[in-house]
Amino acid sequence: MTPGPVLGLVASSCGGVESRFVTEIAEPAALRGWRLAVTLTPTAHRWLTTTGELERLRALTGLDVRSESRLPGEERPHPDPEVFLFAPASAGSVAKLALGLADNQATTVLGDALGEPGVRMVVGYQVRDSRFRHPAWQGHLDTLASAGVTTSRLAVDRPWTGVLDLLE
Ligand SMILES: Cc1cc2nc3c(=O)[nH]c(=O)nc-3n(C[C@H](O)[C@H](O)[C@H](O)COP(=O)(O)O)c2cc1C
């Protein structure tokens, strides 16, 4: 089988990621032909480890599932994707991405790619309604949009899979 295009797939610790990420995002993405280069925030990695979903995720990709930086001298474990999907994205990680804060491997890989010519990025965020009243929130979304990022809110009570359509 010819390997498909690489999708940089990133997830952070939103409620449900520990049980829904593999079924509703990673598996459907692999079925659509993407070769997955997955990076999780440290918290999301811990949650998926606890539920056993990390093993299911690993079985979907021949590449490492990352959550830590490599050691100096180690090979880079992922190719450089031209397409990224960050979903589900927490409010904290969206803010960090917009501000350029790279404090874990997930925010680092996204921050390195954001604004790169030829790179496409979709961010599906799951946040409480109160986030929309936070004075900085809209500015973060506007910053990402100005860099060409497509943003979309994920619903807690509907499958997340629809966000994959935004990659087309
Ligand atoms: C059970 C649980 C569910 C959470 N769900 C969400 C969520 O859906 N959206 C969100 O923005 N934050 C949520 N949070 C808060 C984030 O996990 C927290 O802000 C964390 O620092 C985000 O880190 P990360 O983006 O680096 O994974 C949740 C926290 C817990 C404990």
UniProtKB/TrEMBL annotation:
GO molecular function terms noted in the UniProt entry: catalytic activity
Protein name per the record: Flavoprotein
Cited InterPro entries: Flavin_trans-like, Flavoprotein
Occurrences of domain Flavoprotein (ranges): 15-109
